[in-house]
Amino acid sequence: MPDDRPKRNFRRGKPRRKICAFCADKSKSIDYKDINKLRRFLTERGKIQPRRTSGVCAKHQRMLATSIKRARIMALLPFSQD
């Protein structure tokens, strides 16, 4: 019986780790006024992306969440986008 199904290329082994964008940039702090950088870590609905999808380390994820919340309070970022 010939196998007419298309071949699938599956990667074997562990998936590649994402590198923290803030560690690679060697930034000491995350500024809440830099909304272009903060928007990269929000979903289209306005939620903060989790670490596993954004690839940010735990230390910078905490700083990122605080900066996003500060930007929301200062009305630089929306709380939700319906």
Task: Present the secondary structure layout.
Layout: H1 21-25, H2 35-39, H3 51-54, H4 58-73
Describe this structure in words.
The chain has 82 residues and is mostly helical. The chain has a domain at 21-73: 30s Ribosomal Protein S18 (Irregular), CATH 4.10.640.10. It is built from four helices and no strands. The chain has helices spanning 21-25, 35-39, 51-54, 58-73. The longest helix has 16 residues, at 58-73. The model has no long low-confidence stretch (mean pLDDT 87).
Q: What brief labels describe this structure?
A:
30s Ribosomal Protein S18, single chain, 82 residues, mainly alpha
Tell me which CATH architecture of the domain at 21-73 applies here.
Irregular
Care to count the β-strands?
0
Number of helices: 4
- The rounded Rg comes to 18 Å
CATH topology of the domain at 21-73: 30s Ribosomal Protein S18
What is the fourth-level CATH superfamily of the domain at 21-73?
Answer: Ribosomal protein S18
**Beginning-to-end CA distance, first to last residue:** 53 Å
General shape: elongated
Proportion in helices = 25-40%
Q: Which structural class do you get from the secondary structure elements?
A: mainly alpha
Average the pLDDT over all residues and give the rounded result. 87
Largest sheet: none
From N to C, what is the helix and strand string? HHHH
Strand-residue proportion: under 5%
Low-confidence runs: none
What's the CATH class of the domain at 21-73, please? Few Secondary Structures
